[in-house]
Each structure stands twice: as C-alpha cells, then as structure tokens.
C-alpha cells in the first residue's frame, strides 16, 4: 500500500539536514578557535562597574571616532576601490598584473610600516606633505583625516579583492547583451554590472569597515594618539592595557559588541535584499 | 674499527663542553655568563661585553635585551640569568621580591641592587629646529607641535613629573605609547619637539638635537643592577657587575648618554 512509499519521504528530506562529518568537525573546531578567546574577555570582564566605565566621556569619544572614521573610510574605499576593481577585472592594460600585486601590498606590509610610509608621503616633511604645508598650510598627521587615510590604506585592498572576485565570477553575457542593445560602457556598468555584483560589493564593504574599525598600527604611527581627535578604540585599548588591564577588557568588549551589532544588522539586511 | 674510538672521543668532548656550559666544569672562569638588561643599555653593554671578554679569556657574555618588565617576568619565571640590569628601581623590586638577589652580593652592594647609571629627560628637536626651541617654556607656545609619552607608560610618568615641577601645562598633538615613537616623530620632523631620554637623543645621532632643562632633575630614572639568587655563574657575574660599576664602565655609559648615579 502506501506503506512502501512512506520511508522514502523522510530519507529524502533528512539528507540535506545532516551535513557530512568531514565538513562539520573541522567547522566546529574553526568556530571554537575563533570564539573561545572572546569567551576569555567575557569571563574576565569587571561586570559590576561595566555601566559606569562604558559611559565615561573618553570611551564614548573613542567609540564615536572609531565608528565615524571607519564609515568614512568605507565610503572612500567604495568610491575609489570599485572602479579600480573594475579596471583590474574587465580591462587589459599594460602592467595590470603588477598593479594587482601592488594593490595587495598593504595586506602583507605590517601596518606600522604603512604608517611610516604615509608619514614619509604626507607628513610635514613628506614628498607631498611639504607642499601641502607650504602652499595651503595643511598638515595631515595628528588629525581625524589622518586616521581615515591610515584606515583607507590598510582596508581598501579587502574591498578591491572582493569586488574583483565578484566581477570575474559574474556572467559577462548580460553585459554583452546590453552593449549590443546600444548601452554605453558607463551605462552597462551602472545598470547591469553593478547590480549583478552588488552582493560582492556589500561583502567587500563589510570586510573593509571591519578592518578599518580594528586598525591600530598605521593609525598610531601616522595619526598619533590624542583623545577625541585621533584616539580610536583600538588605540584606547592599547593605552589602557599599559596601566589598567581591566579597563582594556571593558573597551575591547564594547568594541566587540558594537561591531557585532552593526555587522549582524547589515548582514541581515543584505541577505534579505540580495 | 678506528672510527669507533674517534666517535667516542667526540661524544665525550661534547659532553664535557655541555657540562662546562652548565657551570659544572672544573675551570670556574670558563663558559657562558648571561646578562638580562633593559633595551636602552644595548650599545653600552655590548661595548662592555667585548671589554669583559678580553679581560676574562674563555668567558662569553650572553646579553639579552628587552623591556625591563618583560625581563623581570622571565627571570621570575625561572629564566637562567646571572645578572639583571633594570631601567628603573620598581622593576628591580619585582625581581628582588620574586627570584631574589644573591645574599652575599646583596649584603655588600645593597638589598635592592646597586644603582650604576641614571637617565634624564631631554627636549628633543629636529636638527633644523623649525620652532626655535630653547627651553621647556617654549613647548607651551600656541603654534608649537609637541609629542609626549602617554601617562600610562613609564616615560609619560617622568614627563608628567617634570612638567609639574616646571608648572607647565603642555597640550601635545599626540600621546605616544613609548619613548621611541616620540623620537621617531621628532626625527621625521613631524613635530617641533618631544620629551625623550638623554640616551635616546644620543642613539638618534645627527637627526635630533637634545636640550637639557633643570626640571628634568625631578624625574630621573635610576638603573639598578643585581646578581641573581639562582645565578649559574656567580663568580664571573660579580666580576661583570664590578666592571659596570668601575670607572671604565662609567665612561662607556656616559658615552651612551647616561648620567652618573
């Protein structure tokens, strides 16, 4: 009767619900490795006076500076990084391989070295900085603008690489079809290419924002450390660590929770719309 | 057949060498002697080590330089060091409380180690001195950009003490996390002045000029040295400390920018 068909149903439905252990086991180890150190922070945190510490003006100033500079950085990276990724993925200019390698340099250079490099370029005696100072009276180091530049230097490669990967994976026949129907290259880019790779752009922007938020070495070297002006959360954590490790734990947790909240919200939105 | 005795000889020689290195050799003068020293002592102690080895043939001075508090933690965790030279008395205190000093040596030289050098703050300005700095008061000028150590780190505590003695309230453009970072900002000409130690000015060479100021006397760092309780080579270690405390040692330290104790 129907009895013979009944077992087939549950078996078919069960398959996608039970992932194979060769994938699950390493994945669990991976999650544990990433999450357990954070557990250390949570366990050691001085919870009773957490509220008082978190609302200290210096902490709020550092948090606001971190969030605002990381957001401006992400905007800058999108404006310059998406076109750069398009050039690398869709055109064939001489020296393209070299340019692609150079774009990845900030990923391998220690951020402190990046900060020194920025000082040598944009500092008061730097290659460009000396003219900015002499002609316009602009000095970049020790300003919030320097924080944004330091973050952009280290974060932009994440965006460019993500977007370039998305562009290479996108089906080019849609672009070709649009072109044969008379669309110009800019129209093809804005109306066809960009909507297709939007999830890649979004992932790249989130990576970029997260990297900017955690930036330390290039910032302290190029922008210095002054509360309210250039002291972002990672710098505040480092300074607190020198004298009061408990305060450093509190600051780390605040940064962790705020960035988690932002990332979770963005991710939710992204997954729902894309 | 002839290879066997040869191999045995080699093994025995190696074993003997290993024993000597551990301090169990018959000649108490031969082998390694380990000095843990604050990073600012690098140049001076390397020069003194060459001098020591010339005077004590067969003894090799092994120098380990790092931040004082890092070294103190390593010593208290059982690192096999003979001598500890710290950049401040507080850090030496941690070792006196922890592993402790050699009783006999401490009875003669001091329970908290022997101070062999001092390091005082200087105003560091770039070689071209763009702001025309002459004394500490000039750092308070409205259009003078200054880099200082953050209050949280040792050089920042010294800076705060000196500024308080001078009755000055200076707003820098940046509070750096260590004294070398202040020096870098001055060397690159990104700030008009910074407060660093005399030894940092000396180490920076031509790019930086040091200006001394009277209030620096309020925040002098004393460098103590001590023979450790568990020193594997107490004999040569005591000789090393004698060299550091001698006239010759003082001359080398003065050359590196240190003051007399």
How would you sum up this structure, described in words?
The complex is a heterodimer of chains A (274) and B (261). Chain A is built from 14 helices and no strands. With 274 residues, chain A is an all-alpha fold. Chain A has one domain: MetI-like (MetI-like fold), CATH 1.10.3720. Chain A starts with 7 loop residues before the first helix and ends with a helix. Chain B is of the alpha/beta class and 261 residues long. Chain B has two domains: 126 residues, D-Maltodextrin-Binding Protein, domain 2; 99 residues, D-Maltodextrin-Binding Protein, domain 2, CATH 3.40.190. Helix content of chain B is 41%, strand content 21%. A five-stranded mixed β-sheet of chain B has the order 2-1-3-10-4. In chain B, strands 7-6-8-5-9 form a five-stranded mixed β-sheet. In chain B, strand 1, helix 2 and strand 2 form a beta-alpha-beta unit. The longest helix of chain B is centred in the first third of the chain and has 19 residues. The radius of gyration of chain B is 22 Å and the shape is elongated. Chain B starts with a helix and ends in a 6-residue tail after the last helix. At the A-B interface, helix 7 and helix 13 of A face strand 7 and helix 7 of B.
Short description:
Chain A has a single domain, classed as MetI-like (MetI-like fold), CATH 1.10.3720.10. Chain A is globular and about 65 Å long. Chain A has 274 residues and is mainly α.
Topology:
The complex is a heterodimer of chains A (274) and B (261).
Chain A lengths: L7 H10 L3 H24 L5 H5 L2 H34 L5 H8 L1 H4 L2 H12 L6 H8 L7 H26 L2 H9 L4 H29 L3 H6 L10 H11 L1 H29 L1
Helix pairs in contact in A: 4-9, 4-11, 7-9, 9-11, 10-11, 11-14, 13-14
Chain B lengths: L2 H19 L9 E8 L3 H14 L3 E8 L1 H9 L6 E3 L3 H9 L5 H7 L4 E6 L1 E6 L19 E4 L4 H13 L7 E3 L2 H9 L5 E5 H7 L3 E4 L9 E7 L6 H12 L1 H9 L6
Parallel strand pairs in B: 1-2, 1-3, 6-7, 6-8
Antiparallel strand pairs in B: 3-10, 4-10, 5-8, 5-9
Helix pairs in contact in B: 2-10, 3-4
């Amino acid at each position: 009767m129907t009895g013979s068909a009944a077992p087939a149903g549950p078996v078919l439905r069960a398959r996608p619900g039970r992932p194979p252990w060769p994938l699950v086991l390493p994945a669990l180890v991976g999650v544990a490795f990433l999450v357990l150190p954070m557990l250390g922070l949570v366990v050691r945190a001085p919870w009773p006076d957490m509220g008082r510490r978190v609302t200290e003006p210096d902490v709020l100033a550092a948090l606001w500076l971190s969030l605002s500079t990381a957001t401006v950085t992400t905007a800058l990276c999108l404006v310059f990084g998406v076109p750069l990724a398009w050039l690398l993925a869709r055109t064939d200019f001489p020296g393209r391989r070299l340019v692609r390698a150079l774009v990845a340099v900030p990923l391998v250079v220690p951020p402190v070295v990046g900060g020194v490099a920025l000082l040598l370029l944009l500092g008061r005696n730097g290659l460009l900085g000396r003219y900015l100072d002499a002609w316009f009276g602009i000095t970049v180091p020790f300003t919030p603008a320097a924080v944004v530049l330091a973050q952009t230097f280290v974060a932009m490669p994440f965006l460019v690489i993500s977007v370039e990967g998305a562009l290479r994976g996108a089906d080019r026949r849609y672009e070709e079809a649009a072109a044969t129907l008379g669309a110009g290259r800019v129209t093809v880019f804005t109306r066809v290419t960009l909507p297709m790779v939007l999830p890649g752009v979004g992932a790249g922007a989130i990576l970029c924002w997260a990297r900017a938020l955690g930036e330390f070495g290039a910032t302290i070297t190029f922008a210095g450390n002054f509360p309210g002006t250039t002291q972002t959360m990672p710098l505040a954590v480092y300074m607190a660590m020198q004298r009061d490790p408990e305060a450093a734990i509190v600051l780390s947790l605040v940064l962790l929770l705020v960035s988690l909240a932002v990332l979770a919200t963005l991710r939710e939105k992204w997954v729902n719309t894309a | 057949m002839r290879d066997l005795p040869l191999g045995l000889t080699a093994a025995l020689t190696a074993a003997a060498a290993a024993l000597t290195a551990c301090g169990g050799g018959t000649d108490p003068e031969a082998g390694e002697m380990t000095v843990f020293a604050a990073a600012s002592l690098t140049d001076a102690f390397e020069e003194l080590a060459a001098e020591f080895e010339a005077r004590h043939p067969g003894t090799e001075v092994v120098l380990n330089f790092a931040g004082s508090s890092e070294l103190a933690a390593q010593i208290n965790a059982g690192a096999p060091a003979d001598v500890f030279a710290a950049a401040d008395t507080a850090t030496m205190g941690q070792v006196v409380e922890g592993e402790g000093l050699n009783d006999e040596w401490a009875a003669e030289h001091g329970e908290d180690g022997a101070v062999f050098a001092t390091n005082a703050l200087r105003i560091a300005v770039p070689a071209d001195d763009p702001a025309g700095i002459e004394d500490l008061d000039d750092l308070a000028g409205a259009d003078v950009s200054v880099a200082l150590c953050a209050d949280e780190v040792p050089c920042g505590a010294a800076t705060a003490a000196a500024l308080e003695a001078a009755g000055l309230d200076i707003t820098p453009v940046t509070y750096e996390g260590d004294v070398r970072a202040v020096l870098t900002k001055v060397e690159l000409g990104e700030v008009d002045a910074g407060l660093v130690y005399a030894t940092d000015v000396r180490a920076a060479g031509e790019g930086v000029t040091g200006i001394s100021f009277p209030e620096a006397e309020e925040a002098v760092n004393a460098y103590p040295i001590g023979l450790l309780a568990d020193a594997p080579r107490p004999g040569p270690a005591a000789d090393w400390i004698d060299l550091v405390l001698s006239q010759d040692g003082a001359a080398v330290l003065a050359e590196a920018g240190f003051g007399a104790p």
